Write the structure tokens for this entry.
Amino acid sequence: MRNYGRLILLLLAFAVMALGPRAWNYAHSQGPVPAWVTLAGQPPAGSTLDEIAQAITIPYAEPVWVYYGEERRLLRPEEVGFRVDTAAMLAEAEAQREGIGFWRGFVDEVLHQVPQPVDIPLRYQVDETMLREWLSDLAVRYDRPPTSAVVAPIREGVPFTETVVFRPGEPGLRLNLQASTPRVVEALASPHPDGRQAWLVLEETSPPPPDIALLKEVLEKRLEQTPILSSVFVRHLASGQEVNIRADVAYSGMSLMKIPLFIEVYRRVYGAPEAEVRRALTSTMTLPEASNAYANWLLSQVGEGSAQQGAQQVTRLLRRLGLVNSFMAGSYGSEAPAPRVVTAANSRSDFNAHPDPYMQTTPKEMGLLLEMLVKCAEGGGALLAAYPGELTPEECGEIIALLELNPITTYIKAGLPEGTRLAHKHGFSNENQSDAGIIWGPGGPYVLSISVYQPGWVEFRYSHPLMADMAKATWDFFALWAAAHAG
């Protein structure tokens, strides 16, 4: 045992004699930072800590290019308080000289091994407030707000139905400050020239939905181009947006009054209409020559055999629904003296369309009645509230389907894209023409009700293009509106 101990001492003595000079040389050859230590990925450059610290900061003192899309701005590190914390980095590096860790390199040298490198990551500071202000200033310079839709210039000689009515709004561009900040900091902290560039995060902002005032502007301009008294009512069912241009003026009710007549028929017929009633309903919509005769037969059915009583029933329905300017005082073609029915609409002193004393309505009230039909078919609205148990959503859906049978291809239909779902009723007399319908557009259903008056005789060359153009403009507006909300 004693000999074993002596052997160990001899070996130690031999090791000290053999390695001592090498260890002494190793200890005194090491610079202020051990050779295996790198600083932010780079070997230390310099023989003193000050020289090493200065060498560390050189690449980070260069400016950074910041890109806002195609625009480029130079950012100097001092503008945002960026500085390398060399004291912290060197303190970590010097710690590698202490304790057993210092001799790790010597052991690797003796064993002819490459020392395992130790990298001290870049330590830096940046003034977040200054950086945020710098980026905010950039946003003020280059952010582009979205623009609203506008009325497109109307080209002379181009038919209204073939032109662009509205010019969509343009999307905007804005800086995403939160997402861009790390990119700028990353560029400031890069020692490589190629890395000292930052592409900011930009977001496209959608244009605001078009204002219904644009549609009103277009419709008013179009009405001004026609030398006859005209009125229009538009209402978008989902949003409640509406346009009312003289839509409270009284016009002859004509065949538009067949819409409330249909409702009264279904209200009084429980279950599916009998074959004869259904044939009359369909014929009223599809046979222009016999339309009034079938309508009078339907009036007699709801009037207990009297068409006159049937007209009164229709008027009661209209009053119950709050449509106080619409009425039927007689049947179609009635020659009996018409009672004087006074309404707010036919008492106006500013506009007079000389409506038929037997049947009158306004574009607004016909539009509202059509809206009620849609709401009823969907299971709600004023019709079901006014007549609980007497009307069903299915019956309202059947009335709408009847209105879809209208074979006329002029007026409103002429201004709509091919294949558009349209449920409407038109009417005409010597001095009045009207068309009122439900249109299923990209943004959901809306109602459009138009009436015109011309003393003596309404010229088709005025009424048809006018209604088609207003249908086109209204469709285009709600298509634009729907696209804005879909985005």
Summary: The first helix runs from residue 2 to 29. The chain is about 40% helix and 15% strand. The chain has two domains: 27-208, 212-486.
